Amino acid sequence: MENHWSDEGARELIDHFSDVSETLALRVYTSRLIGAEADLVLHGGGNTSAKARLKNLFGDEIDVLHIKGSGWDLASIEPAGLPAVSLEPLLRLRTLDQLEDETMMFELRRALLDPAAPNPSVETLLHAFLPHRFIDHSHADAVLALTNQPDGEARCRSLFGDRVGWVPYVMPGLALAKRAAEIYEKAPGVEGLILEKHGLFTFGDDAKTSYERHIQIVSRAEQVIQEATENRRPLDARPVVAAREWQEIAPIVRGALAETGEEGTGSFRRFILAHRSSDLISHFAAAGARTQHLAEAPPITPDHVIRTKGSYLFVERPPYANLEAFTELLRQGVAEYRQAYRAYFERNRGQRELKPLDSTPRVVILPGIGIFAAGDSAKAANVAADIAEHSIRTKLAAEALGSYEGLPESDIFDMEYWSLEQAKLGKRAPAPLVGQVALVTGAAGAIGEGVVRSLIGAGAHVVGLDLDEARLTAVAERLSAAGLDGKAFVPLASDITDEEAVDEAFTRAVEHFGGIDIVVANAGVAMAGALDKLLLEEFDRAIDVNLRGTFLTLRAALHHMKRQGTGGSIVLLSTKNVFAPGAEFGAYSSTKAGAHQLAKIAALEGAPSGVRVNMINADAVFGDAANRSGLWAQVGPARAKARGLAPDELEDFYRNRNLLRVRVRAEDVGSAVLFFATQQTPTTGAALPVDGGLPDAFPR
Q1: What span, in angstroms and rounded, lies between the C-alpha atoms of 664 and 618?
Q2: How far apart are CA 309 and CA 359, in angstroms?
Q3: Of the residues 25, 440, 636, 661, which has the fewest C-beta atoms closer than 10 A?
Q4: Average model confidence (pLDDT) for the chain?
Q5: SS3 370
Q6: Are strands 259-260 and 268-269 parallel, antiparallel or unpaired?
Q7: Which architecture does CATH list for 7-229?
Q8: What does the DSSP 8-state code read for residue 121?
Q9: Are 593 and 564 in contact (CB under 8 A)?
Q10: Is 588 known to be catalytic?
């Protein structure tokens, strides 16, 4: 591992953070160096600290500990992410024989100099009890490959000698902090501590020393692994050819992982998927019984359990050529995994009043395909995938050195159900569309943007299609500016009249998120003009977009949803013109009526697979200043002329003609889409007016 310390870089950061102490600025600098190495820490893992002196409210200098705060990532940490806690009350806690976890966190918060600061790390006491000014802690893959062995302690002592101390596994908290301090005090000359199946601590009186000791120890472990794995692979694996692209497999995996909701409702809890593949993963997945053993083995460090569960689901001989047989085998594997998880819960909870977590596997290993990781969001799925990828590499390294061995399942269970670890995931009630994927056509338009905003606001991940790439980019920028999850929206320039483009767009949605649950067919064009004056190419254009485009969208949606096997919701943005057509608007009215009829047929054909298809009949959505309706910009002047109005009178005309005298907004259409997408009622084949009330357009 390369040493990235730079005197110049350190000085630049000290100058940049001139409003904090040099100690804290250097703590930020080396924390970022460690956080930038995925082989050391992943996604908020690891922690660092620095001891300093600060003045309190009364001007008295006191000893403090700057410690990484909850929610901060070392790679991007700022001074605010290393809140100061008063050291003296923390040191007094060492006199206690035991300390409840919640009480410990209360005491840590009480010691904060700034009560608004984030919670200090659960390993704060370990940092406090060691005397060093700077302390670095990581979950280095190479060190874990050494410690996760039946003879891990002997291996580490043989490799590092008296340079490091060995701390047998103890759950984080007071007990671990006291044990680590005692071991250090028996050998005060050590440069670091290796915690069994947990990670590495190094320390020093300055930031550079602590950091460089960390890099040196990890590099030595990496060297041993490299020597053991050079020119060979540790498992007896035979390459597997999948005969299918992973994009074909992903929706089946996603469907198998979905949890069935209340019986009779057709609802599911779904997950976003992330796919990974590499030569190393392919080797790992192709070793049969040995892969099974390692997939079921405990994680390389116990805190991974909240992201990936304790074991992975491995399918040894998937019949990819027969998708029906593969689907059945995979669903059987998921069912057996869930049954095994429930047994694991009952074995380990003892007399504790615990509510079981969900039993769905978070990592699926498929020979010839790679790994799929599941999460409630794209971020969570990618975190699980990153952890799984590093875990596979570490387990293979351990096998090359000897034999991989994780912690006993009782220790993994204690970590999984530890209240302080669960707190990292948050306890907010999930949004109604969490884990679901939507595809919206015409996403750059006024209605399209309103629909996208509503779906993302309800927790969905959205792929937005539009022919106008510039407008689509502008929508993405407005979503980010509004504080909506930018990573939950994927803009994709696409032409829905092109068969290959539509199929490719659905494939891209699978690549990003694993499958599709909601499709909103919104794209459309309007052609104004009397029939005797309408040009054929204008009528053909309306057919291409409004009818052909809707057909291609519905066809692809039904194909993907049936393959996924968890139903779904298709919503067609129809129009009031289906029921109440207007003169000199024949191309639009007739082609939208045809699309409306196609949606009814899709409702008939999708119902046996649990796919609901509904229509929304909106009227006169003009958009707002940020995104004016392109449709009305195109046909507005002609519609105004047909009604004997000035163009600037048109919007008021449409508002005043409906019963409620209201302006129909894009967000109103978005709310209607949400009604169907969240399956508030067992409804399919319905048409919902969003028009303020137009008697001549009442569905009948």
Answers
A1: 8
A2: 9
A3: 661
A4: 93
A5: strand
A6: antiparallel
A7: 3-Layer(aba) Sandwich (3.40)
A8: P
A9: no
A10: yes
Burial 360-396 (b: 16+ CB within 10 A, else e): bbbbbbbbbbbbbbbbbbbebbbbbbbbbbbbbbbbb
User: Measured between alpha carbons, how far is residue 270 from residues 222, 262, 332 in Å?
Assistant: 39, 14, 18
Q: What's the rounded mean pLDDT across residues 592-604?
A: 97
Could you report the per-residue pLDDT of 336-354, keeping only the tens digit for each?
999 999 999 999 999 899 9
Q: What is the tens place of the pLDDT at every residue in 639-685?
A: 777 777 887 777 788 788 889 999 888 999 999 999 999 999 999 99
| Parts of the chain belonging to CATH 3.40.225.10 | 7-229
CA distance 149 to 123: 24
CATH no. for 246-425: 3.40.225
Q: How many CA within 13 A on the CB side of residue 86? A: 18
**CB 606, CB 570: distance < 8 Å:** yes
Among 312, 337, 404, 588, the active-site one is 588
Question: Across-strand partners of 165?
Answer: 193
Residue 464 contacts residue 477 (beta carbons within 8 Å): no
What whole-number distance in Å separates Cα of residue 82 and Cα of residue 121?
Answer: 10
Q: How far apart are CA 393 and CA 388, in angstroms?
A: 9
pLDDT in tens, 137-155: 999 999 999 999 999 999 9
Start-to-end CA distance of the chain, whole Å, equals: 72
DSSP codes of every residue in 253-284? HHHHHPEE-STTS--EE--EEEEE--HHHHHH
Q: Is 679 helix (H, G, I), strand (E, B) or coil?
A: coil
Token representation of residue 336? 């057996």
The single-letter code of the amino acid at 190 is V
CATH superfamily membership of 437-627+665-689: NAD(P)-binding Rossmann-like Domain (3.40.50.720)
